[in-house]
Every structure is written in structure tokens, then in C-alpha cells.
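Problem: given the chain below (75 residues), write out its structure.
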Amino acid sequence: MAEASAIATLRAGLPDRYMTPDDIAELFEVPLETVYQWRKKRIGPPGFRIGKHLRYDPTDVQHYVRERKDAPVAA
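Solution.
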């Protein structure tokens, strides 16, 4: 999924598939390793495993973005 289309998908509606860690990295413009560190520290969007594969529900990603946007800014 291209970066622009990942952002457009989340703004326009839900994709018709679960998102991969690569999709999340492209969406937030961060290195893939950052996505894995977020998961390890439990600070990023919630993911789940399908066998050995990590996936993200687009609804959970949208919710995570809304929470982050509404969070108070740390001084």
C-alpha cells in the first residue's frame, strides 16, 4: 500500500483488508523497526497475530489516531 493511499484510505473509509506492519510504517512515515518497538512497548496501534503474521485492524488504527489527536500535549 502506497503512503498516500494508506492515508487516503484511513480518511475516506476502511480498507477491505487487515493492515501489515509495512502499511503502518508507511502510514505514519516511520521506520518498520519503530512499528515493532511500539508493539513491544505497547504504545502504538494495537495489533494481533494470525499465525506468525502481525496484522492491524484499520478500525483500531483509526481509533488510535483519534486518541492521539485528542491527547493533551505534554509540556
